Each structure stands twice: as C-alpha cells, then as structure tokens.
Amino acid sequence: MIRAFTIRLIGTGLLVLLSSMSAAFTPEPPESELESKARYNDPLPTTVLVRVVAHRSLVLGHEVGGARVTMTDVATGQLLASGLQQGEPGDQTQIMRTPHLMDEPVYSSRPAAAFSATLELTRPTLVEITAEGPLAYPQALQRASTTVLLIPGHDLTNDGIVLHLYGYLVQVEHPKPGEPLIAKEDVMLRASVRTLSGALVRPHSDWDSRKMHIYAELLIGDRIVERLQMFYAGEKSRFEAPFFVPLSKDAPDGITLRVVAADVATGNFGVSSAQFPVLSERLRPKKN
Length: 288
Hints:
Layout: H1 2-24, H2 31-38, E1 44-54, E2 67-73, E3 79-85, H3 92-97, E4 115-121, E5 125-133, E6 142-150, E7 156-165, E8 168-174, E9 181-182, E10 186-195, E11 213-220, E12 223-229, E13 231-232, E14 238-244, E15 255-263, E16 268-276, E17 278-279
Parallel strand pairs: 1-7, 9-17
Antiparallel strand pairs: 1-4, 2-3, 2-5, 5-6, 8-10, 10-14, 11-12, 11-15, 13-14, 15-16
C-alpha cells in the first residue's frame, strides 16, 4: 500500500513538473499578431454605393440633373458624406426587360449613375441615407430615405443601396406659361410626360401611356370649370387636348391649366400647372 501511494505521488509530481515546463516554454505571439490586436480600434475604410432610381424606370442621370445624396450617423446626427449622383440612366433592356435572380445585379451590369463614398468607421454604425431629385426639375422634386447598418470594412457595392423616387415629370409646353390668351379662342394644350429619369412615356413602350390617366383641368381661381382628356400627339412624350378660353369677364384674374399624369398600378403621379391672363376677344389681332 505504501508502495502504491509512493508511485501516485511520484506521478503527480511529474505531471506538475511537465506542466510548469510547458508553461515556461510557451512561445511569445508573433509581432504581426500583436500589431493586429493593437489596431482593432483603428477606423476601417468602408465604401458605400448608392443608386437613386425612378420607380419602375431607369437611374436618375445627368439628363434630369441627377440626385443629391446624404449619409448621416443616426446616433450622433453627424453628416458622414454628401454629394451628387451623375452619369448615365443605365441600360433600358437590362433594367426593364431582362429577368433577374435575386442576387443578380440590375443597375450595375452596365454603366449607370451612382454616388459612392468611403467612410472611416470604428464600430457598427446605423446610417440614414437620403436622396432627392431630379435636381433639374425642382417642381417635380421627390425625396426618399432609408436606414442601413454599416459594418467597418464591409463594403456595399455592385447595385449598392437602391432608393426609389416616385413620380412623373410633367411640363406644359403650349401655350407658353404666362402667355396671354384671347377669350373664346380655340387653343391646343400640349404637355410632355416622362418618368423621373427622363424616359419617354408613350403608347406601347416600357412606360405605356395607355395604362395611365393623363388629363388636364381648366381652373378659374381655385375652381375647376372643365376637365380635358389628353391624347398622345404622335411624337416623343407629348400629349394634347383642345379647349376654349373663357370670357375675360368670367376670368378677370386669368386661368390656370393643370396637367395630371396618374398611374395607380405603379404609384407614380405627376402634375404641372401654368397660369395665363385672358384678354377680351376685341383685342384679337386683325387678319390682313
């Protein structure tokens, strides 16, 4: 029994000795590992790409003035980046007509406008990204925003963060806004309708006017006195409707023409208004 106890004691001593020797000879971590740990709290460059697109249409590019993009730290309110999206509207066939799997790029497979910023992040950061455009058409300006959690060193590229702006660009082209109209005269109202990216709205196109409601309203003061159905004029994205100018005594402060484009299927709506003074028919220029 004494012999067995002695053997166990010797074994325990050997284990303790070996353990201490192993600890004594544990190698120091390499300098590269120590340096890496020391830089855990250094900011990491993180690239974020943003694309501002017209809903159910193309990217807002230079043709419509592009879009303004801002990135803000939600927790602190600090402005992290801001700038303009400029470039091409993208490939219409690729964006509008080509089927895509969920992980396939839609806007980045061909050159298309985008805004890119590289942020120096030290921690996961919740960022609010805001876009507004088209900048060349203030009367049609729309705004959209979203919040995105960014992780230091993890870039968001390819299509990036896509923000959709809803609406149409509607412009009264004839008569020219502010042009005096003669009472009782038959006038042809003409207006253009495009998507916010500048794409043409017309029958049998990717943006089919037959599926939209495009009409005009004639107002005296704030009262609608007539509604006009507008029809495609056969060129580009122009629509027209004839109307009679009311008597000057009925519209002493002139009239307003308001053109509306509405597509309830996509949620895109647009409007444009123009005012016109009305002159008495006695002031009509005499024909030679």
